[in-house]
Amino acid sequence: SYWLFYIVQITEGVRASVTGEDVLEYRALVAYSSNLTDTLLFIHYLAVVLIEVRHLQPTYYIKVVRSPDGESRAYCIGQLSIQRAAVWVLERYYTEFPIY
C-alpha cells in the first residue's frame, strides 16, 4: 500500500505539471510518504500489543478426582465461567470415567 500511495502522488504531480496546475514539491511528497510510513508502523505496533494482551487472559486447568476409588483426570478448559465449567466437567465425567 505504501508504494501505491507513493505512485499516486507522483502521477498526480506529473499530471499537475502537464496541465499547468501547481506542481507538487518533492518535500511534500517525502513528508506524505514519511507520515504514511509512521502511520503504518503505528498500526503494526498496535496490532502486536493487542495480540500480546489477548494472550494474557487466564486459562484454567482442572483436575477431577473421584473420591471412592481415586480415579482422576485433568482437563485444560480455557476460559469458561464456573457454571459452564461445571457442565463441561460433568459431561466429561459421564463419558470418560469408567463406571464405578
TrEMBL record:
Keyword field: Cell membrane, Membrane, Transmembrane, Transmembrane helix
Compartments where found: Cell membrane
Predominant location category: membrane
Residue ranges of the TM segments: none
InterPro entries according to UniProt: VANGL
Topology of the protein relative to the lipid bilayer: Multi-pass membrane protein
Superkingdom, natural source: Eukaryota
GO cellular component terms, semicolon-separated: plasma membrane
Family membership noted in the UniProt record: Belongs to the Vang family.
Name of the protein this chain belongs to: Uncharacterized protein
